[in-house]
Every structure is written in structure tokens, then in C-alpha cells.
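Case 535 in the screening queue. Each case pairs one protein sequence with one candidate compound; here the compound is zinc ion. For every case the pipeline is the same: read the inputs, emit a complex structure as C-alpha cells, and attach any notable structural observations.

Predict complex for case 535.
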Amino acid sequence: MPSVPSETIGALAVSESSLDSGTDGTGTGNSHSMTDSVRCDLLADCTAEWLSSMEALRKDLVRSVPAHCALHCFGAALRGQMGQSASKMSLYGMSKETDIIDEFWSHSWHSEPWKKVLCLLFLKNGVAAAVAGTVACLVGCALTIDGSLPNGVPFEGISLWGTALGIFSYLLTLLLWRPWKSVFLDIGCINQEDASAKTQGILSMGGILKQSRTMLVLWDVTWVQRLWCIFEFAAFLKSRGSTMAKTPLIRPILFGACALTIFGFTCMVMFVMIFLFSLGFRAALLPSVGAIFFFILYPAAVTFRDYFWSMDTLAEQLRNFCIANSKCHCCSTGHPDRSVPCDREIVLRCIRRWFGSEKTFEDTVRALLPSLFAEQLGRFGFPYWLLLVATCPMLWSLLDLTVSHWLRGDHFWQFWLGASGGWWLGAHPFAAGLFFYGAKVLRAPARSRLRDVLKNLCVIALNLPVLVLTFGLNEILIIFQMPTYLTAIIAGSIHISLAVTLWFSPFGLRHRSSGTLEQEAPAVATDGMDESAGI
Ligand SMILES: [Zn+2]
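Case 535 output:
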């Protein structure tokens, strides 16, 4: 194990840490003497040697906090709302020394904080919220049948108690659920108030990463531009060696905002649909629903075309990935203290030790990241499970409709019970898949505003067959005068089969074009990693 010269810690104690770019350099060096240059070079070398050894300076510097502490108060730590020393220390006080960290959270402090927090809330609490909401909905339905809750609220003949309780429990669980997975979050697991302790924490980063089971990358365009994010990624890859047994989890921070938007839209659509059902205008239902879908889907088409266009930017960014273009705090402030080595010098030396050369590492990133994106985000750039979590209100409102028919004593409750599962698991994901596909194919901005509007309309038009399938299929099956339960089972099975085919089968839609992340990635150049100089 290489030793760390005490001067390394001492010198870096006054250097700017990229882990907290909110502070500013206060170095007093004015001239760049040869002595400084030699000293810096020596310090950079010693620091790089230690960091690349992937050891912690002390065992107690490998720390983790439960995920719910990191997300406490709507992720106050990630939102930078912990300016007070006491607040920072209270989060640090919740961290504990550990041998194994479940998840290392890698993120850029330059991305929008609320997007990161929303993303983490859905990733960590989304499934629990969906389960809690569904249980609350079932309780609401049972109480409505029981007569404990008044029937016919808010619409005559149709109660929405299940949906109301579901939404309430869902949002409450999303905000207050306490995931216990141990995570490493820089601001919570490195002492931010003591400069020397902070430097020791940074110097232990290699050891911390080595003892992390997996890495969660909260992706946005700034992540790949930050030098220390690149360092974390490089160290994680190195710690896994050529086997790549545990690949990093890449999650765009836009996931949370998209999921919340879909949740809100689903609530609105289902509320209006149930209202139309309560009026009994069955003949008017299709054009009305069509009009609603148009007004709701138009901004969605604009948003998702932008989203897929930004993925092209990402592909371009990865193709041209170059460590020299990354940014760090010391370089952006012009190195006010010439006696402290540049972070870039230290990171580059580590990378050379781990991967042999910068080019080998750059080739690895260019190959690995696109393949991870394609593999982990699925063919539509948004995971199926998250779509189900975001569209729970559809299930709940259809269960309410089932209850209303049950209370009326007609047999259509069987039909709506089948539809609740069939639409939630099948019809809607099928529609969403087609929608995403359309937005992806037509993602490029048009030259004129008129053409852009036409493109958005084309994306929406792709949903028309699904509207016909969802409503028309049920009507067609009713013509055969089969028992209602059989109609429900057949319709539900067809919807789910279509969704599974579209999302998971090799025959599903898969858009490939130059410049996208789904292109075949070259083999990851990790073979030489273990042999390269370093540990
Ligand atoms: Zn620098």
C-alpha cells in the first residue's frame, strides 16, 4: 500500500474540492515559480499514486447513509439547501462507517437539483408508492361497496373514492417512504466542515468506490463534462476489472419529471373519461376522448421529441468524449493558488495508471456508455416498470368504475374489472410505446414552425390505431354476444399481448438510425485494464 505524504493532505486541505463547487479558492499565491511547479508535480504524483491504489486512508472514512436520509426533506442535501454548517453536520452525523456500500450515487452538482431529487424519489419510492396507492384504492372500493363511504361522489352513479385514496397514498408514500439501502452521497458521507477531514475523504474515494456494490449514475449532459464524475466512473470500472460483474446503473435525471408528468396526465384523462361515462354519452365518447387526447398529447409530443433529440446530443457527446474537454473547479477559476496541483493532472495520472493511457479509457467510455444506455433504458428510452408506476391512476379509476357497476347490479363490472388490468398493463403501454416511437422517429426539429406542428400531429396520429383498438376492440367483441367475463378476458389478453410484443419481443418496433445510442457499440476495451500499470 503506497504511503501518503503528509504534505499531500496538508496541501490539498487548502485546495478547492470539486465535490463542493459552491466554495471559492482563497489561495494567496501570486507568482508561479519553478519551485511551485516542481512541488505541484510531486504532490500530483503522490496523490495520484494513492488515489489509484483504491484504498481508504482510514476505515472510518468509508461511510454511507440510508437512502431516506439522503432524500430527507425532499432531498434538501441535493438541492443545496444545507448551507448551514449545522445542517451539513447533521446529515454527516447520520452517516456510519461501513464495509460495504450498497450504492454509490454519482451526480453532477451542475445539474438541476429538483430533477435529480424527483428522479431519485421515483427510483427509490416509486414501486412502494404504487403498491401503497393500490392497497388504498382497494380499501376505498371495499368501503364504497360496504356503504361506509357515500356512493355517487363526485359523479352521479360513479364514486371515485378508490382513486382519491390511491392518489393521496401514492403521493404521501412517494415523499415519505424510507428506503434503507445504504448509499454514498458525497455531501453526506464526507465531512464538509473540516478541510483536512474533507481532503482525507476525497483521497479515500478510490477505496470508497471499491467497496460499493454498484454505482447509480444520475445522468444529465453536465455529468460527462465534470472531471470528478469521470474520475468516479473510471475508478468504478477499474475496481470491477475486466469481468464487469456489476455494471453501473445509468438513469437520466429527466425520468422523475417525465414520470410525474405522465402521472398527472393520467389523472386528468381518467377523470374526464369517467365524467363522460357518468353522462352516459357513449356515442359521443370517441370524439370527446380524441379531443382530450389531442390537447394533452400535443405538449407531450413536443416534450418527447425534445427528449429524444437531446439523446442524439448525448450520443454525439459520447462519440466525441475526450477527458481534455471535461471541466473542474480549479481550472475554471484559473488556479489562484499555484502551490496546489491541478485536479486534472491528478485525475489524468490516475487514469493512465488504471487504463494505460487516456485514449484507452476514452475508447472504453465511448463503447460502454452507449451500450449501457441502450440496454438499461429499453427500446423506447423509458422503462416499462416506471410507466406502470406512473399510470396507476388508470388502474384505480377503472376499479372505481367496476365498483359502480357492481353496485348497480349489472354484469358490466366484469368487463371493467378486466379492462382495469388490460388497459393498465396492455393498452396504455402499447399506446405509449407507439407514441415514444413516433416521437423518436420524428425527433429532429423541422425547418419551419408549420412543419414542426405537422410533425407533432403525426406523432399524435400514431395513437389513433390504439384508440380504435382500445375502444373498438371491446365493441367488436360485444357484437359476438359472448359472456361479459369472456369479453373482458379476451380483450385484456389481446391488449397485454400487444404491449409485450411491442416492448419486449424481438419483433417489436426498434428505430435505428445513425447517431443514436442504440447503434451496436464496439467491444468494451477492458481487457488491458488489469495489466495496465497501477495497483
Ligand atoms: Zn485545474
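Case 535 observations:
- The longest strand covers residues 212-219.
- Residues 1-11, 13-32, 519-535 have pLDDT under 50 and may be disordered.
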